[in-house]
Amino acid sequence: SHFGTEAMPFLLKAVDNSDKAFRYSALNLAEKMDDVATTRQWIAKAGTVSDETKAEIIDMLGRKGDVLAVNFMKESLQSPSGIVRAEAINALRKLEGNKAVPVLIEHMAKGQDLEVAKTALQQLLSQKHLALVAAQLDKTSGKTKAAFVDLIAAKSGTAFFDKIFALTKSGDADEKTAAFRALKKVSTEKNLDNIIGLLLAVNNESEIRETKLAVVAAAKGVEPEKTENGKLLTALKNTNQKDRILAILPEIGGPVALETVSAYFKNATGKTKETAFEALDRKSTRLNSSHRI
Q1: What long-range pairs does 227-231 form, CB within 8 A, spacing at least 24?
Q2: Structure pTM?
């Protein structure tokens, strides 16, 4: 627009102002100019200002949507400034959509800006990208690896169950916590042997809780699990950790599970009796109240 060319010198100068609200107004106007020449001028200007202002210009260019700015965003991922990198990640998400996935995965693998990159990737990833994510599990560690585990869980990457399951034995606390948290999103019926075994082996309260959720997710609605010969009922007979299975049996559905828990409530003593009672009580509360899930 004619206004655009006239106003450019004024707008470029306006972002040198120390008043954030004033800069914001100027950048809102700048966003509406859709010619390539102004994009080039803003990229040049971003090289001459403070990190805070540079981040604001990057944010504006991401909203403006001119793909000419993509290379500048990729360069900005190398900035020593966290706010500049964070805005560059978000701008790439807007400018490139899922074409930005490999670049953002590579950036995340360096261990920088994990939360921002993870949030951007959650919005972009589809299940077909998950192989790229899972490939990073062998190359990363600690909080970085944990962030990749979170991404696989967010997209229910059941194909990568074995990799996640292996990390429940990790010596690294971040990796281990993320793996347990992910189990309920990646476990299916064919993983029941593994996760029932894990449920009976773990000792930490939060690990027991997460593994129970995984077993429920994997067994719920599975017809064989509603019978005497289901893996859960078989495990119940053979374990001395009966409480852990009794606690979740009513969630699996079917009359056999409920009859089994009722029988333990009648015949067992102590903690096992209590667990059976609580499980039945939870089930009846849920049946009587359609609002609770």
Answers
A1: 227/254, 227/256, 228/256, 230/256, 231/192, 231/193, 231/196
A2: 0.90
